[in-house]
Design goal:
six-stranded mixed beta sheet, 434 Repressor (Amino-terminal Domain), alpha/beta, Rossmann fold, elongated, DNA-binding, homodimer, six-stranded parallel beta sheet, 16% strand, 12 strands, 14 helices
Chain lengths: 341, 341
DNA sequence: TTGAAAGCGTTACCAA
DNA sequence: TTGGTAACGCTTTCAA
């Protein structure tokens, strides 16, 4: 049997609330003499008392738990270190502030998101790229602190969003390729990613950057089947000398597809990834890629969420409309080169 | 304001427990007419009622939450996909059974492990390689379902453990290297890993395998400083033609160190990793490595934990002494070859 | 300075 | 078939 506060109180010859005050600093109208306090502490120690968090949470209406949703259509990639980096940022932020990170099936498996509302979580970090109007609406009416990652600014009104500066990033990519002499540049994206807000944002950013360079960009939506890539290449080999990819993972798959089709990178095709993780140093050839501060983004989103949680009791809720973008860089490696004459 | 069960009951003109029965199937002695039931459901819908999980957990003494401890001295590696694989296995098991995965700071940051006992978790999955006698003792007395990963059989009595078959794995490695013609084989391990139970187990397994092959094995404990490796090589270059490493990550670092010292792999030195993740295909040269079914191990450990949780209410607690090991394979890639004559 | 009592939202037990 | 009552473990308010 677990020891309860009452048992401690009884054994120490005091009331339950004295114990509560001494051990948790609760109750402002209460003063206990130093003697009593130390006696309570000793008795608690002797009885091996452990406060029950459930009861405290129920009473205090706060759980110190944050729900995190980061699953991207299934499984974590084994190749792309994106999620470890994301988790590092999240854990750094949450743990330093004493919050527990929870991944709950209802949130992760995309069933009903009632779990958001059942009192389990003080706040939600939505780090998954897919969300639709209906869920956004529920988020807003839920009145629970909520922060979104991967949500391009403007895609959502009234909720704080944290996202890479896709516009600037794709400008870097296009400028780099154009400076190398490329004109026939294609943006490659998977069918799945193409449906996310960030997918749409990067696609649009690509078009904008191309237009500003006086070029016309085209998009290759790939279902990740090898034969589909072979067909695309057969039909378009004269229309494309460079591919800017939505992610490193996709770029890696394209490198593999090129290898099996004897398409030489970068001689026949330049390839650019997005994320610039350690993964890019291991590919053959090493992958030129957009770098974004994943861990920093995650960390700052978490800290914003925590401040939102802490101020949610106050009268004036702190700026729920915050929208932060992060500047990206371009790490040039060996997968890009001038096109063949 | 959140709608409570009582409000639903009042609005429907019934008692709270009728609501509880209809919505959660609780209370066996209770029958409600079909009319009443549907009315209750309708009213609950209208009032947008959401059951409060905290209250239910407090009352039922179960949270459907499992605490997972997997942090290995700091951060998740960005190179080694070990943790994504581990998490995939854990999430597959937990989510399918409706459990929430929690990472809480007290458990992850190695402070006091009181969080184990404060009622938050139905069970604990200890997936971290470090544990000492004292913590084991607390685990046992805690009486909370607990399963350990990375704990070699025999290292812990009275708790279920799930682990790779290190003995067989290192036999595969030594046999492979011996068959190639190697005699001077060294087991490489980091200082940190050397202190874990699994580190000790693999070291011992290496010695056993070497002895059975009529060889004498030596161990290189590396603090991961480049100059330390340079010194080791300068002093031992004639005593070592092959290194069996504790992990892929370590093997990767050794490959990098070799490159900077112009030590050719595999001509001058054969290197073997442990885990055989996708990481091994990306290294130069691709890394020969022991394969272990990480995801399967994690999944089955989780399922065992869940069955332990479910039977912990029963009279007969289900075999707490289970100890499972998993057969490993050897994926031969390009980092091993016969030694130079 | 201390204690008694009333909740938080839910479920189990027992009477009706 | 129903409903009251007590309890889960803690904290706050109010009274002593």
């Amino acid at each position: 049997m677990k020891t309860t506060m009452r048992q401690v109180a009884e054994a120490a010859g005091v009331s339950a609330m004295a114990v509560s005050y001494v051990l948790h600093g609760t109750g402002k109208n209460v003063r206990v003499s130093a003697d009593t306090a130390s006696k309570i502490r000793r008795v608690a120690e002797e009885l091996n008392y452990r406060p029950n968090m459930l009861a405290r949470s129920l009473r205090n209406r706060q759980t110190n738990m944050v729900g995190v949703v980061f699953q991207h259509f299934g499984r974590l990639s084994e190749q792309n270190p994106y999620y470890p980096m994301l988790l590092n940022g999240i854990m750094n932020g949450l743990f330093a502030e004493g919050y527990t990170l929870a991944l709950c099936p209802q949130l992760m498996q995309g069933g009903s998101d009632e779990a958001i509302l059942d009192g389990r979580f003080d706040g939600i970090l939505w780090a998954r790229p897919d969300f639709n109007e209906a869920s956004i609406e529920r988020f807003k009416t839920a009145k629970i602190p909520l922060v979104l990652l991967h949500a391009p600014p403007g895609s959502i009104q009234g909720l704080p969003t944290f996202c890479a500066d896709n516009e600037g990033a794709l400008r870097l990519v296009v400028d780099h390729l154009r400076d190398l002499g490329h004109h026939k540049i294609v943006f490659a994206i998977t069918e799945v990613d193409a449906q996310t807000a960030e997918g749409k944002d990067r696609t649009e950013a690509f078009h904008n950057a191309m237009r500003d360079s006086g070029l016309t960009g085209r998009v290759f939506v790939w279902n990740q089947q090898p034969q589909e890539f072979a067909m695309y290449w057969a039909a378009n080999r004269n229309q494309v000398t460079a591919m800017a990819c939505f992610s490193d993972t996709l770029a890696g798959n394209i490198l593999a597809a090129c290898r099996s089709l004897s398409i030489r990178v970068p001689e026949d095709l330049s390839v650019v990834g997005f994320d610039s993780s350690t993964f890019c140093d291991r590919t053959a050839p090493p992958l030129t890629s957009v770098s974004q501060p994943v861990e920093k983004i995650a960390y700052e989103a978490v800290m914003q969420l925590i401040s939102l949680i802490r101020s949610s009791n106050d009268a004036a809720p702190a700026m729920p409309n915050l929208s932060v973008t992060y500047e990206c860089g371009l790490d040039v490696r060996a997968s890009t080169a001038p096109p063949r004459a």
